Amino acid sequence: MRIFVCLLFMLGVFLAVSAQQVEISGRVADSKGQPVSYANITLQHSDSTFVTGCTSDEKGRFVINKLSVDNYLLQISFVGYITQVIRLDNVSGTLDIGTVPLADEAIMLQGVTVKASNVMKRVDRQIVLPTDKQVKSSNSGYELIGHMQLAGLKVNSIERKITTVSGGTVQLRINDIEASTAQVQALRPDEVLRVEYIDNPGVRYADAEVEAVINYVVRRAKSGVSGGVDFMNAVTTGFGDDNLYIRATHKLSQFGLNYYLSYRDYDDRKVDEEQMFDFPDADVRQRDLIGISTPFNYKDHSIEASYNITKPEKYIFNAVFTENIYDSPHGDYGQLIQETGKTDLYNYTRSEYNYNSPSLDLYYKKILPHDQFLALNAVGTYINSDYKREYSEAYTEAGKPVSFYNYGTDGSRYSLIGEGIYQKTFKEVTLTTGVKYMQAYTHNRYMGDVNESTEMHNSSLYGYVQAQGKWEKLNYSLGIGASRQTFDESEEGFTFYMFRPMLSLSYPVFRGANLRYNFTCSPSIPSLSALSDIRQQTTDLEVNRGNRHLDPYRSYTNRLQLSWGNKTMNFQLSGGHRYSKNPIMEQIDCVVQPDGSYIIEYSSANQKSFTQWNGRLYASVSVVPDLLSVSLYGGVNSFESKGNSYLHHYTAWYVGGDVSLNYKNFSLYGSIGNRYNSLYGESIDYGEKSSMIQCSYKWKNLNAGVGVLYPFTPAGWSAGWKLMNERVQKKSWTYIKDNANMVVLTLSWNFNYGHKHRTEDKLMNNVDRETGIAR
């Protein structure tokens, strides 16, 4: 009996101990008490064998549960901070270790080695920690993304461009502020803590029409003065991007000034074209248009003055005044027209476009108790634009025109955008809701062959709510947005209502692998210029016209993606399907003129449907760790364009890759890709071939380099399109030989004087670039 009682007692003790809910929690902060998000938390047994791990959340908090009573080692690390290791003996029950401060490294990001995968996957994004070598070898935000080789992106650091592989728009942000080209170029890579690659933008970005978002999370300049210069100019061609910036911080305030100049000046640009017109009252007309070298140039100036005042954990106020000035006096092209049975003609198209756009951006964020905040943003913009186009035909290159058409547009637009975002973080879910309103007035005066004036009032209201959380191992994001768009032109009004649902699911199928499914319903509305009923004759045979009867349409996208990665390699396999119902696509008609002759009229209309199937494989390998890495991608697209009177199919393959080499203070980056071709409506778009090589040497705060754009391509840059209408068939190619084997020199220098102080930035940025003019 005693033995039985003893065994029963021991069993009870064992069950009681086993039933204890062992949990370890805490908060990670820097030396100033600010939370450190996405810090790596690793729990080990006292013999250093791995138990489990996690990352801290946006507030720096972490929780590890479902543990047994034992002795543990808790390791907390993050790039730019000294790793902390805490010994926890005889852990039982719930243990809150409080706030764990991480001390800054003496030199940020120096001497840090990422021992595991530096990529953390979330339901809508990848959080990537730049390695020490990637930071050392980069001189700007563009070069850093290039060396990081993120799946699905194409980077051209010479031309200051980041796009998706398909050529889609990538929105760039710094500390969640939408950033300009100048700001990304001025970004110091050694200030970047992590990069958030949002390759599945949620409903918050739904009205921005972007395919991806890059958010650089940085440590901002602190008290003192910092600044720098960055120059990139071609040796023999008019091609350059130059930037100067300075920031000064005093106590809680920061002042900034930035100037950016981008210019192009080409002499050898030409357009070759083949045309076929089938008019009812005449034979088929076949024409060859042989391109003549003509000038193309522009200058794009951007001046930014900013002020920021931040009281940590209390509030942020940010004000930015921006002046953009764009001037393109020559977007010209000339051609020799050869047609069987007719005398040769020379045509010349002269195009001039310029605008200036001042804007004021005000932002305020209030940190509220209990893990919530409220952010408000207001942006006022004025755009003054001027566009002129002249088309002439003559029997000699410099002869008297036998036909001449011209029109111009003098436009003015005033807009006001307001937005509010509220976010609340609960234990298991983060809830975000927002509303955005825009009111604009546009006045355009058309001159030349068209002598009309149009006035348009338009407004938009967009509201959304999004929930992100985790259930067991399943990460989810569910968002719903709704918008109302109104247009009022010349006493005729349009009102569009749209609904925008979005769902994302992510599940870790096995160690290092993640399976993700995305669904989006994206409405699209007609542009202001497409709704404007302005008739513009472009040649003897052709005319452009708007369409007041356009309706919005919906696109439904499903995407499945499997990704796997570790310290040395990453793979990603994805496939998707997109279906658009009644999309706005080309409408080409042969119409009768008052004199009984026919002319081709180009317009837009709601057609039947558009379908796209796509698949892509991506692989990156660190061939020699911290020295040489290579990435490759390839994919296929299949398109079906179904119009009211046409049906077209097209399939296109694409392939590309890049290489990153870093050795001590030397770095080399190169990329190459074939054309990304696509079908929409009745046109096939032949994208550009891309290739570049850039190498540089870094010494302290000075970086000098040399690069080649389009190496080994004597023809230079080229892109084209093909029209497949039953009445009109065209094939056009544009060439810029000045870009062929173009050698560029780069030089940058930055300085930092005084102590440092972290500032916070705003979560949103609104801007208006819509001129509303028909071009």
Automatic annotation (TrEMBL):
Q: Which protein is depicted?
A: TonB-dependent receptor
Recorded hits in Pfam families, A to Z, give: CarboxypepD_reg (PF13620)
Tell me where the signal peptide lies: 1-19
Q: Which domain of life is it from?
A: Bacteria
Q: Which UniProt keywords apply?
A: Receptor, Signal
Is NADP tagged as a keyword?
Answer: no
State the organism of origin.
Phocaeicola sartorii
